[in-house]
Amino acid sequence: MLTEPIDPPGIEWLRVSPKYVTVRLVEWALGNVIMIGLLSLPLVFVQLGWWRWPPVWLAIAVPAAMLVLALWRLVLIPRQVRAIGYAERDDDLLIRRGIFFQRTMVVPYGRMQYVDVAVGPVERSLGLCTLKLHTASPGTNAYLPGLPAAEGARLREQLSARGEARLAGL
């Protein structure tokens, strides 16, 4: 993989499971079907003669624009999943994500208060989980989605042990 200018040198990034694309597609489908359905209600009401406003062109344009935006997001999902990576170093965990707006986050082990593993119904059916790292800073939004369940459990135990060791000053 090519490294980006914001990546620290010499890092071997580990990727999340490709199955995470399925999780993101299910989330995409549920959210966009509901949103486009709701945005299409004015068109239905205008066509049934229940409403005179908005004009038909506006009642068509709004859900159509949302559909185009939703399809664009659909195209980006596989690339967004491939852009998620993590790397364990001696003193910290690196997490990267993003295509257009890239972000590389460094979470020192000594700042971790606890490590949480969460699974939703779609993730559970695919054998995946999301690792959440809680630090003293409420602004830290460190999470790593799409990990195989065994890797998530291993990381939880390893990161917790490293965090306790760094916190104790060992």
UniProtKB/TrEMBL annotation:
Keywords: Membrane, Transmembrane, Transmembrane helix. The chain crosses the membrane at residues 25-50, 56-76. Residues 82-159 form the YdbS-like PH domain. This is PH domain-containing protein.
